[in-house]
Structure formats: C-alpha cells, structure tokens
Amino acid sequence: MHRHPHCPGVGAVSKVNCLNFTLQADCGDEVYLRTFDEALKKVEPQSGQPFL
Q1: Fewest CB atoms within 10 Å of the CB: 3, 32, 43, 49?
Q2: Which domain covers residue 33, as residue numbers?
Q3: Tally of domains in the chain
C-alpha cells in the first residue's frame, strides 16, 4: 500500500509477487483499513501462511 503520487511508476499493475493498492493522501482511516483488509485477504492465500 502506498500513497499516490509519492511512488510514481508503481501501483498501475499488480504482479504475482507484488500487489499494489494505491491510496489518495486524504483517503481517511476507514478507506485505509478496508484496503488493508482487502490486501491481507489476497496475500494470505498466496503465501499459504496465516496472518496473526
């Protein structure tokens, strides 16, 4: 997860070993936490390991 536009050139396409979730600087806590939850749901099945 990164804040747009501070990481130019990233976040456009997710790859097998890298999932990108671009957030606006003023997205707020609710959007940040929902995006973080979405990221964990995508990463955990790929890793085969549970997150604590």
Answers
A1: 49
A2: 2-47
A3: 1
Prediction pTM value: 0.58
Residue 52 lies in a domain: no
Locate 7 and state its tokens. 């990481």
Residue that has been written with the tokens 């747009």 in this structure: 4
Q: Span 1-7, mean pLDDT?
A: 60
Residue 38 lies in a domain: yes
Cβ-based neighbour number of residue 45 at 10 Å:
8
Tokens representing residue 35 in the block? 């995006």
Instruction: Kindly state the tokens that stand for 24.
Output: 């606006």
